[in-house]
Amino acid sequence: MIIERRMERTDPAYGCGPQERQVESLLECGIIFLDKPCGPSSHEASAFVRKILGVQKAGHGGTLDPQVSGVLPVGVGKGAKVIGHLGRPDKEYVGIMRTEKEVPAEKIKEMFAKFTGEIIQTPPKMSAVRKVPRKRKVYYLNLAEFKGRDFLFTVGCEAGTYIRTLCTDIGNVIGGAAMIELRRTSYGQIGEGMCWTLQEVSDAAWQYRERGDEKKIREVLLPPEAAVFGRKVTITDGAVDSVCKGAPVAIPGIASFDGEIRKDEQVAIMTLKGELVAFGIAKMDGRQMQSERRGVAVATDAVIMKQGVYPPHKKV
After folding, report:
1. pLDDT per residue as tens digits for the range 157-172
2. CATH number of 18-87+191-225
3. Is 237 a catalytic residue?
């Protein structure tokens, strides 16, 4: 629930709504929801995007193995910094597990049920994290169809869950199994229907540069606000410049906020026009933001908007 602290109007002379930005501004700070193909690593896929668009920097979120396809958010320019603050959202996959011997479908369903909920798994040797057992949540693990020793499944899980390891662990119970195909179908609220292939990104960039046609590039290259799904605090025009310089958000500078904000969680700091200013860490919960009259509500953590977009606040 959004709670309004004070009625404020925004000055149209400064800033602009996310959908009103020029394409060149999006190339400086934008987001692409990429449908990564099998073959390249996530790093290589984001490098392809960088070369296609002719930008200096691009970064990805939620690494996919080279032979795994699907949803991969890519930040362009300063959008790479936004990607780094999307948190660790839940993921959904569809994959194929192949067993070493014939196993009845009912037995597979039974195993899937046993590996649903809180599980313990050790990251594989190829991973970059410590190889120690850790708890992860599998929200659902469903058998979609099967043929012979191949079982098509869908799985929804907590970030950091290794599906290849999940298949191997199931195989250890039933006499052997391995993942042979995997596709990520969602990354938090980003679904595969929102994604674009590398070829589509290339076509959009060509139409923009060679024909001056912005239609496709605007569909593919989104403002960074399109990837901000978490809690938000909206600040007044007068507070924007200070936050761009790294200052915290004080209660008097808040226009509205998400009433469900919890202390110490990450929030997005927005303008009245819906522009992303920065990410910060809440120092008050929603109840305090509503009742307090002074004090620091959000400590600025990562500034996204460049300085000078809004004028400094004039003290009266």
Report:
1. 999 999 999 999 999 9
2. 3.30.2350.10
3. no
